[in-house]
Automatic annotation (TrEMBL):
It comes from the Eukaryota. Residues 793-903 form the DUSP domain. Signal peptide: none annotated. This is ubiquitinyl hydrolase 1. Residues 1-28, 561-604, 945-1008, 1151-1171 are annotated as: Disordered. Residues 1012-1081 form the Ubiquitin-like domain. CDD domains: Ubl_USP48 (cd01795). Residues 492-526 form a coiled coil. Belongs to the peptidase C19 family. SUPFAM superfamilies: Cysteine proteinases (SSF54001), DUSP-like (SSF143791), Ran binding protein zinc finger-like (SSF90209), Ubiquitin-like (SSF54236). It comes from Rhizoctonia solani. GO terms for molecular function: cysteine-type deubiquitinase activity; cysteine-type endopeptidase activity; zinc ion binding.
């Protein structure tokens, strides 16, 4: 094979005119244009010269290699090049101009049409640079300029917001409310943080210090939002956990009250008391003697329970109504000396300047021991007169609405808190949504509007009212403490500096962008080649796209622009001494191709082997024609400028095309053309002259493969196997090298068809149809046929003697079989299966051996299977009659004999079994307990169907009495007439299973029953199968049932032998489940309220149902708010001590509990007051704080860094928040996904 390669310096001029696109010549006057001349250029084929101009690889020239790479395709116009107006026509030359009018445009240049055209460099990403504004934006984003700090600047007409640190919106909402309370803000500013330090803590770790910082930033910050991270850290609050806003308000206010009492300023010590504390009287009055016993207490907020479409005034009135005590709840009057009817009452005696109404938006559901959110709307006025609700008459006491806290979201465990607060300094309402603050109009203050002075909301969580005539401070005279003011001013200074630095950086980047854009545009506007024969640089398409978009992509922007500038220089031309004119060239080494020294070889080789280079370079280091679709050609000058700017790719000269790869591809193309032509001529030859002349035998499999468009046996670069090659020879010739007697694998072909094949395979000499077959093979075939006949005759004889064994199924269990009394025998089912297989194919299938019944007999000479149980017989044993046993014994022998006698019981009518071998229960149980993958049956009870007994019979429907549990999570239904309003008017969500999820229910009314429903008439259930192993737990079995029946595990009750399986961690082996046992499934469903009441009234005692309580999490346990530490207070006078010792009742109880029967004194009666009272310096809610703190083993709080540990694992099915170390959900028992 001869190859000839010419460099650009010695290229002969004779080949320039070969395979070039036709050049249109000028038309004579009146000559008609032939449009076919343009079609040739548009439909140019890279390999169109194969088989036409070139018939052998030795004849391939440089022009053919260029055509194979697509370099001779048309050159598309550069669509990014500047438009040039055509020169004006010269006057007086109209007679010499030929005007051609045509509706046809020049060949289309599009992404699809030019996808494989190396001479088209459009659509590579130039449009990203053409729009300057869009390109600048992408460039700045890639350079990671960041957001403009001015966007976070504070609007002079808006207050400052607070940043959400993850789930701290509840704290942000209350901080905004407290900040707008001028008297409270002034008191915070007056505090001395050094007086409230914890042992071992610095002043900056004081909550008072950080609260002053936060309030100072809200007052003087230049940014629109302040980050309260230091306040959150010093309180120890877990920023990733959502908490209850009311609980935070109580605990934080309790902590502040404790800290205020340590101050020297007497006004600050009583700040919480003077500003937020009211007084109430709780008492009981005898209906006979009118004697009353009263107890005074204080409160910080008034709780408001919700009903459907309620009003604030109506709920206040309902809370203050007298409660009658009669019947079992009668009052033991100390004056009358006996139990008398009485009235329990609550009276408000004093109201604070700031009044908080806590809306009980979250209620407790005893059904699943979790909180639910009530969606009842509450209507509240913008102004309210509280005089009607006080115990004494007097002048009107008007309160103005000053704040509303909102909880957005349907769940009590998730959602978002917002605050709507009235700013007294701006005399306007504002919506505080963490960082976002916007001014509100009065008409869109909260929810829908009923009239001009009343608002309605389904999300209102707390209402804050301020007394209209209460003395107020001037906000303009409030002075921020110096340390807080200096810190805020420093933050403002840093903010201004960041704005200035941002402007400078942006100007620098924009200047760099302008210069870069101009350079890029100059390059891609002029990188188009001018002639197909021009020596140019070839790059991969992806390399050019990456270079164009490198500075607009964030992932590639920071890469050094000069990284490959030194190694990506133009490749020097190969000199003529590298090629041999009369021989096949050897590819030069990579260091010669890429022009690098030995010292640079190791480092450069890594760069030239980039994916961009591999897409167009073959294994010889030259251009690969098979990758022409990925090639793009640019001019030499453009490549030099690209190198100067830097590019992570390698370019190769367009005349560096691999001759070896081109020749290999040429041979394959030529083979395809010649093969198609030969197959067509072969098929034509097979259709004529079949009646005359000899015919020839050929391998049928070879012929079928060879006639494919691309034969499977073809290997690139190799000739196809000859028809009588070793892999196909056995189709025609036998092992004795003679013509095989069987014609199944050979086929006849005609003499003309054979001549066509000999053009490709001249050495092929097939046998003709007159050739005699091998006599030895014929004799062997005849012997096989005789043996087959004998085997079939033998099989037919046994089938005649055993007709029942050949046709019927197993007789089944002897207990259920309708058989006459008599004797039966057991044999292995595997023996019957093998015998039937031999009957179907007696020549090829093996005949079974002797009967082996040893598998049914244990070492104690007893049976390990029970013939009366279908589950044990199925798949193991087969029942036959006495005649069949005798015939099988004669033909096959074997044993031992397992004889079973079936007799009928006259009394019960059932079949009784007597066997010649006893049933060994121990070995039988051991066998049934050993299973790794077995199919078991589960019987699902219908609604109202009772549990079957151990023997499988179903009992009559009857109530099952259960012992009353004393556990705290056991619910009992109490017969009461108390009102129990529904929680929500919206329909409940569906559970993942087929059953409905229990409806939400409030806990201040009647509780609901979870008793399993029973029906009046028995219904029949159904049986289904699941696959289990002995090591599967009950939880695993319930998941299998969920997949089969769509019932979540929480609603499944499983029974084995009449006993409920309550421990989900036990395995089937531990509970004693055998392979032939059956599980009983009952799908439970909770009743709604009406059904529960009706059932309780008609069915007697209510059956208690154990409910798993929901884990409410750590709340504020482990934080400073949850601790019980109280630093020593400063010395106070007796008057101050009595004032500070005033108790703080946190709330008015919505429904006071009944009185105790043996209250014989006023102290005993007052002991039942439902208020949390704290004395001295102890926290206002100390008992709650102690309970929360007791949940954590550590005495000091800490910030949890692990988000998973802080928030727990939320179940994807029921959204229940589980402990992070649990594997399965405590509520629905599904597997938790990390």
């Amino acid at each position: 094979m001869k190859h000839q390669f010419q460099t650009s310096s010695t290229r002969p001029q004779s080949w320039r005119n070969q395979l070039r696109r036709p050049v249109p010549k000028g038309l004579a006057r009146g000559e008609r244009l032939s449009r076919s001349a343009f079609a040739t250029a548009a439909t140019f084929s890279e390999w169109g010269w194969v088989g036409t101009e070139v018939g052998a690889a030795e004849d391939i020239g440089p022009q053919h290699r260029a055509a194979a790479c697509g370099f001779r395709k048309r050159i598309c116009k550069n669509k990014s090049a500047p438009r040039v107006d055509p020169p004006p026509a010269k006057s007086g030359a109209e007679d010499d101009v030929v005007v051609i009018s045509s509706d046809d445009d020049e060949p289309e240049c599009s992404i699809k049409a030019c996808k494989a055209n190396p001479n088209c460099c459009n659509y590579l990403g130039q449009r990203n640079w053409e729009n300057e504004a869009t390109a600048r934006k992408s460039y700045l984003e890639a350079a990671e300029l960041g957001d403009d700090p001015k966007d976070s600047g504070r609007d002079s007409g808006l207050p400052v917001g607070l940043k959400n640190l993850g789930a701290t919106c509840y704290a942000n909402a209350f901080l905004q409310v407290w900040f707008q309370d001028i008297a409270f803000r002034a008191g915070v500013y007056t505090c001395v943080p050094e007086l409230s330090l914890l042992p071992g803590k610095g002043v900056e770790e004081s909550p008072i210090y950080q609260l002053q910082m936060t309030f100072g930033a809200l007052q003087h910050s230049n940014e629109k939002a302040f980050n309260p991270v230091k306040l959150v850290e010093c309180l120890g609050i877990r920023a990733g956990e959502q908490q209850d806003a009311q609980e935070f308000s109580k605990l934080f206010m309790s902590h502040l009250d404790n800290e205020f009492k340590k101050q020297e300023n007497t006004l600050v010590r009583s700040l919480v008391t003077d500003q937020f504390e009211g007084r109430q009287v709780y008492g009981t009055r005898c209906a006979t003697c009118q004697n009353a016993s009263e107890h005074q207490s204080t409160f910080l907020e008034i709780e408001i329970s919700l009903t459907s479409d309620c009003k604030l005034e109506d709920r206040l009135k309902a809370n203050l109504e007298d409660e009658k005590l009669d019947g079992d709840n009668r009052y033991d009057c100390s004056t009358c000396g006996t139990k008398q009817d009485a009235f329990r009452y609550l009276r408000l005696t004093h109201l604070p300047p700031v009044l908080h109404f806590s809306v009980l938006r979250f209620v407790f559901d005893a059904k699943d021991f979790s909180r639910k959110k009530s969606k009842h709307a509450i209507t509240f006025p913008l102004s309210i007169d509280m005089r009607p609700f006080l115990s004494e008459d007097g002048a009107e006491i008007w309160y103005e609405l000053r704040g509303v806290l909102l909880h957005r979201g349907p769940s009590a465990y998730h959602g978002h808190y917002e605050a709507q607060v009235f700013d007294v300094t701006r005399n306007a309402w504002f919506q505080f949504n963490d960082e976002e603050v916007r001014q509100l109009k009065l008409e869109d203050l909260v929810g829908k509007q009923t009239n001009g002075r009343v608002q309605t909301s389904k999300d209102a969580y707390m209402l804050i009212y301020a007394q209209r005539d209460a003395p107020s401070l001037d906000p303009s005279i409030l002075n921020v403490p110096k340390h807080a003011f200096d810190a805020v001013q420093q933050l403002n200074k840093e903010y201004l500096s960041s704005c200035e630095a941002y402007v400078r950086k942006k100007q620098e980047l924009e200047s760099e962008f302008s210069a870069l854009r101009e350079q890029k545009r100059e390059i891609y506007q002029t990188w188009q080649i001018s002639d197909v024969d021009e020596v140019s640089m070839v790059l991969s398409k992806s390399a050019l796209e990456a270079w164009l978009l490198k500075e607009l992509d964030k992932t590639t922007f920071n890469r050094s622009a000069r990284k490959t500038a030194e190694i990506s220089h133009p490749i020097p031309s190969l000199t003529s001494d590298l090629r041999q004119r009369d021989g096949s060239p050897s590819p030069p080494p990579p260091d010669k191709i890429f022009g690098v020294s030995n010292g640079e070889k190791d480092n450069t080789q890594k760069d030239i082997a980039t994916p961009a280079a591999h897409k167009i370079v073959c294994t010889h280091g030259l251009l690969d024609p098979s990758e022409s679709v990925n090639m793009k050609r640019i001019s030499m000058s453009a490549w030099e400028r690209i190198q100067e700017m830097g590019i992570d790719a390698t370019a190769i000269e367009s005349n560096r095309i691999c001759e070896d790869c081109t020749a290999a591809l040429f041979n394959e193309k030529l083979y395809t053309l010649q093969h198609d032509d030969m197959v067509s001529r072969f098929d034509a030859s097979m259709g004529r002259d079949r009646g005359s002349g000899n015919e020839w035998w050929i391998s049928k499999s070879w012929l079928k493969d060879w006639k494919l468009k691309k034969p499977k046996m073809h290997v690139n670069g190799c000739r196809d196997p000859i028809p009588d090659a070793s892999r196909f020879r056995s189709d025609v010739y036998c092992e004795h090298d003679r013509l095989t007697p069987s014609q199944k694998f050979r086929e006849r072909i005609s003499t003309p068809a054979l001549e066509v094949l000999k053009e490709a395979f001249p050495e092929f000499e097939p046998p003709d149809t007159e050739t005699e077959t091998c006599t030895i093979c014929e004799a062997i075939a005849a012997s096989d046929r005789e043996a087959n006949r004998e085997a079939r005759a033998k099989a037919e004889a046994e089938r005649t003697r055993l007709p029942g064994l050949a046709r019927r199924d197993a007789l089944g269990t002897l207990k259920a079989t309708k058989l006459v009394q008599g004797t039966y025998y057991l044999i292995p089912l595997s023996f019957v299966t093998q015998w039937r297989g031999w009957q179907a194919k007696p020549l090829t299938a093996p005949r079974p051996g002797p009967i082996a019944n040893d598998q049914f007999i244990c070492e104690h000479d007893g049976l390990i299977i029970n013939p009366m149980e279908n589950e044990e017989m199925d798949g193991a044993a087969f029942t036959i009659t006495t005649p069949e046993w005798e015939i099988l014994g004669e033909l096959y022998g074997g044993g031992p004999c397992i004889e079973c006698t079936l007799e009928s019981d006259d009394e019960s009518g059932d079949n009784n079994l007597e066997s010649n071998r006893p049933l060994c229960q121990d070995c039988r149980k051991s066998r049934l307990s050993d299973y790794n993958h077995a199919q078991i049956n589960v019987y699902r009870l219908a609604d109202g169907e009772s549990l079957p007994d151990v023997n499988g019979a179903t009992n009559q429907p009857a109530q099952t009495e259960k012992a009353q549990s004393t556990e705290p999570d056991v619910i009992h239904i109490d017969d009461t007439d108390a009102e129990s309003p529904t929680l929500s008017d919206s329909p409940p969500a569906r559970a993942p299973g087929a059953r409905k999820r229990p409806k939400p229910v409030t806990t201040y009314g009647q509780r609901r029953s979870k008793r399993i429903r029973t029906a009046a008439t028995a219904k029949k259930g159904k049986t289904f199968s699941i696959w289990v192993s002995k090591d599967d737990t009950i939880r695993d079995v319930k998941r299998q049932i969920e997949d089969a029946e769509d019932i979540v595990p929480f609603y499944q009750q499983l029974y084995l032998h009449g006993v409920e399986l309550t421990d989900d961690t036990q395995t089937l082996l531990q509970v004693g489940f055998l392979r032939n046992d059956r599980l009983i499934l009952r799908a439970i469903e909770a009743m709604d309220e009406d059904e529960a009441v009706n059932w309780a009234l008609t069915s007697g005692d209510v059956e208690p149902k154990t409910v798993r309580p929901r884990n409410e999490g750590r709340a504020f346990g482990g934080t400073l708010l949850g601790s019980t530490y109280a630093a020593p207070a400063v010395p106070t006078t007796s008057t101050e001590q009595s004032t500070s010792a005033a108790s703080h009742a946190l709330a008015i109880e919505t429904e006071p509990g009944p009185s105790r029967e043996n209250d014989s004194s006023e102290d005993q009666d007052m002991a039942s007051v439902p208020s949390t009272i704290s004395d001295g310096i102890v926290d206002l809610d100390s008992r709650l704080a102690q309970e929360l703190a007791a949940e954590d083993a550590e005495s000091s709080f800490h910030i949890v860094d692990d988000e998973t540990e802080a928030t727990g694992l939320s179940c994807a099915s029921c959204t229940y928040l589980n402990h992070p170390r649990l594997k399965y959900c405590e509520m629905c028992e599904r597997e938790l996904v990390l």
